[in-house]
Amino acid sequence: MDFVIRRLTSSLSRSTLRLSRFLLGLRFAAARRQSLLMDSPVLNQLFRQLFQHPACRQSWRSSSALSGRRPGCVRLSSTPSRQQSRNLSFQSFKQRIFGHSKLDPGTLWTPREHVMQNVDNFEEQLQAYPLVTAKELRHHRERPRQVKMLTREFIDGWEAYPLLYNHNYGYFSKHATIFRPGEPFYFNEIEDGPAFYRMLGERYHEFEDQLDETNPDVARQLWHTPTELFRPYYGETIARYLVSNYKLTLYPYHDLIIYEMGAGNGTMMMNILDYIRDTDYEVYQRTKYKIIEISPSLASLQMQNLTDSLDAAGHSDRVEIINRSIFDWDTYVHSPCFFLALEVFDNFSHDQIRYDLKTELPQQGGVLIDANGEFLEYYNTQLDPIASRFLRVRQAAARRKFRTPLTSKYMKLMRSQLPWQQGHRYTLPEYIPTRLMQFFDILNTYFPGHRLIASDFDTLPDAVPGVNAPVVQTRYKRRTVPVSTPFVHQGYFDIFFPTDFNTTEDIYRAVTGKLTQVMSHEDFMRRWAYIEDTETKNGENPLLTCIKYPSKHISVSARVLSLP
């Protein structure tokens, strides 16, 4: 028996060694291919053009002034048609180093790979710089320096939304523009799907050409929504769902009250009100539409579009635009209502969590911003109450297995045998939707009679490394430029996350106590849309095929809550 065991052990060891050598060979081959690509004359020419941009040249000068620093690095795109570069002011964070005894033993820091930092100096900064929140930076006109921030505070913020929404240097207030295709597409007159995409591309260029005539901007961030692309059909589909459920459960004892968060141009509002007015005037007379909009510029645009539209005659008396953050909400709404959150979850900030491979204990990520505006990522073994609560709620509420960076014990053992994994003590980061959980708290506290209708993408390409990681991208001279870190220059980058609807549904149920239903975008449209309106001549339907990933999250317990 001992002889058999020794033979099996020896055979297993040889197999593990062969597997390790094979994987190591693959890694070396991939590295060699990447090196060959980096020597491409085409890429050299591309980088040379990028470095001529004033912002890049300024960043080059400021970085070169620091001894021992390398000005920048570039990551190759896996998609040939998309340009992908790192902003010169920001480097990747890979090398992990423990702080010395002078540092809080619960804090670990990650310096940039190509920017060598003085460890003692960093320790002093980490101890001296205050930990600030977005609320504290709300009225700052300059980008913060010499501070520490948790990842969720840096990305999004509790009330100020410093990166995405800050009025002085935020993404949506500085460069973001919502694409408006002009006249609706008459799909029944379009030959097929490719013809629709050609028309869409032409209108896209025409729209931006018109903007450049009056306000040229090489860093304009142009983005589009299903509401705009499929106007009015997308809005009419949502309206059909709202009216049907209102008449089944609330009519005639309650008014139809609709809240929409993040309404963009206000197109969804006008499409819904137009449909209700034209199809059921009795319900229209009892309809109240309230928009909660954090951006002052978008709130003004929504009101302007409402007053300028000839089709919106009569809507003004039924619309209220509330210019505030949903996280500032403090008014109790006792009446049953519908709450729309369409393509909103993706911009809610997340916390960054990684795990110790040996102990499997979580560590919370943050960023230190030094006197030069450089970003340095660090981790703390002491989780703040919000992140800690999310992990507890998810663990208790999950009805299905959820994905984390931690692997099974067998896979952990196999990975520990690989030579390039010997020095790795921590997992890749996991991005947890703590702000989304707080949004559910707001709904539960101030909108107890709500029904939530939410739509967003459940997977995204070109995300940064990690689990449930975001896509971080900017746009320069009409080209999309994705980057590989969320710690980027404020005001120029869009950061958006995928939504794990299984986990979201479980947490929503745990926080609000409501029943829910999650369905795919296509299933929802087939049930509530008049899909023949969006069919092309050859039978293709862009409304069903153009948007591949969104899911619909619908809460259905308002009937129970409305009972005495």
UniProtKB/TrEMBL annotation:
GO cellular component assignments: mitochondrion
Superkingdom per UniProt: Eukaryota
Localization terms from the record: Mitochondrion
E.C. numbers: 2.1.1.320
Single GO term (MF): protein-arginine omega-N symmetric methyltransferase activity
UniProt entry tagged with the keyword Methyltransferase: yes
GO annotation terms (biological process): methylation
Reaction catalyzed: L-arginyl-[protein] + 2 S-adenosyl-L-methionine = N(omega),N(omega)'-dimethyl-L-arginyl-[protein] + 2 S-adenosyl-L-homocysteine + 2 H(+)
Alphabetical UniProt keywords: Methyltransferase, Mitochondrion, Transferase
Keyword Oxidoreductase found: no
Cited Pfam families: Methyltransf_28
InterPro entries: NDUFAF7 (IPR003788), NDUFAF7_sf (IPR038375), SAM-dependent_MTases_sf (IPR029063)
UniProt-annotated stretches for the region Disordered: 62-81
Described function: Arginine methyltransferase involved in the assembly or stability of mitochondrial NADH:ubiquinone oxidoreductase complex (complex I).
Sequence similarity: Belongs to the NDUFAF7 family.
The name this protein goes by in its record: Protein arginine methyltransferase NDUFAF7
Organism for this UniProt entry: Aspergillus niger (strain ATCC MYA-4892 / CBS 513.88 / FGSC A1513)
